[in-house]
Amino acid sequence: MTGWGKSRGAITDGLSQPVGPAPRPPRPLRRHRRGDGRVALIFIAPILVGFAVFYLYPTVRGLWWSFTDFSLIGQANFVGLDNYAAALRDFEFWNSMRVTLCYVILNVGSQTVLALLLATLMHRLTRSVILRTTLLLPWLVPNVTVGLVWLWLLDADLGFVNRLLGSMDLGPVGFFTNPSLGIMTVSLVNTWAYTGYNALLLYAGMLQIPPDLYESAAIDGAGEWKLFSRITLPLLRPVLALVLVVSLIGSFQIFDTVAVTTKGGPVNATRVIYYYIYQQAFTYFHLGYAATMAILLVLVLGVLTFVQLRLLRASESQLA
Amino acid sequence: MEVAMPTTSTPTTARGRRARRRPSWGRVVGWVALVVALLVTLFPFYWMVRSALTPNADVVGDAGRLWPSHPTIINFARVLGLVSTAEAQAAGGSGASIQFGLYLWNSVCYCALIGFCQTLCCTMGGYAFARLSFRGRGLIFNILVAALMVPGIFTLLPNFVLVRDLGLLGTIWGMVAPSLLMTPFALFFMRQFFLPIPRDVEEAAMLDGAGQFTIFWRVVLPMARGPLITIGLITLVWAWKDFLWPLLIGRDETTRTVTVALGVYLQQSPNRQPDWTGLMAASTVSVVPVVILLAFLGRRIVESINFTGIK
Q1: Which of A266, B4, B270, B305 is deepest in the core (most CB within 10 A)?
Q2: What is the pLDDT of residues B39-54, one digit of tens each?
Q3: Who among A39, A207, A239 is closest to B132 (CB)?
Q4: What dotted CATH number matches B100-268?
């Protein structure tokens, strides 16, 4: 977060310097030699504007709100660290963090294992583009649609899955309505949506591994399991780590599926942190408090990313 | 680019290997697993279309059937707003206005605006950060890319208030504003593309007296066609899937996107049961553009995924 203080100055520098008339004589000379200053400003101006207005300004504003009692209407009064203290005491905040963590572990865990399996199968068996395209389909569909379709498939009365279970004399299962099943169902629905995408990423990583390695190992009599555990897995580690980082961060930001299928219920059993922040901001209009929780989430994600990138770098140096 | 090479060169070796090996149990089990994965992937889509073709009166009777006993397209007609309110209500609708044709158009505008402007701006920016020399280049770039770490919800709250204060709530401009000019990802991606490309061509053009803009439009853009399409496609897909932001900004019927409309539709259901047949017809409508995209650009998209995966 300390980076933001610096960034404010840097951006204004970048904007003001080439625009204003150069105060000192050496500058135009150098710019002339390189010939880029003015042109570069025109090239990056849209980006700087977009960044300043929709990334930098809201970051500063959000930070400020976290120290105020700002609600959507009216004045923001400075309240010091009250919001942070409130968040740490708020049972619902901790509950939503716990629910999110459950979701992340179930979702990232299952989807990474399945994606690894799928990628390995594709790598060893087929190069079919049609197969890969089909596996990618769920990723291209909006999460809202995914949520709706599975809400219908898993409906307690009329859903196909429960009809199937019913025909096997297994009572109807309230996949979304049973508090102890809700978050697992949401996790697995998103596993369905994202496994193919992750499998393609891992598959691309596997294509980078020199094929001769497999061939010479196969000549030496290595079985498929040996090929996987001795060649694929170790050489895939950087890509695997990258996929894990990306899906972990994405997974923490689950919102759409919950908003469509369970709305955080039953009895808050699926109220993930994104949904709780959303409710605090747009149902109760506690924008100051919502901003505080968003900052706490940023901190959690920052720590996780840092740890994971360290692991990633460690694995890369091992390979080099 | 690096990935494209193995994909084009490996089929021959794979075919050779396949010919040499006799089918073993392991391979059979592997293929069975792949087929199961395909079925699990496709079945929900099949069920969605099947349910969309089921008349509302048969929802209970047909619940366990793989094909509706009286297939109909009335559900599509009513979610697209092609039949009168009375007819729609007779077919199971709530009577509220549902015009997925309009929502589809809104989504297309939303995606096209973001896809085009963001890709153009980030290509220009990526080029500048990779190629042009100016003061503070490294520092500015690092700061811009640091924004990759900030989760969307953090900037979303102040951005909502900003758009509201600007009076842009319920307008397409308010909806596209935050992602119109840049996302850190697209900028980072384009810069990474420009970095390793040899400068010879540009330098030759410069010797011919071409200015930076001419070089960019005539030399650089054509060269960057591949990654441009890649980042454009990814931006399109993301925009197509967007839900929370359009939900907050574009609530009015005139700016509602398909995803938001689906959420609203689910809540409109007056009875205990949601209007499942209509919802599945509407879901199908939200999937059709994606399937068209895949049918025409499937290979391209699949290769884009590979490309972004390898940084």
Answers
A1: B305
A2: 999 999 999 999 999 9
A3: A39
A4: 1.10.3720.10
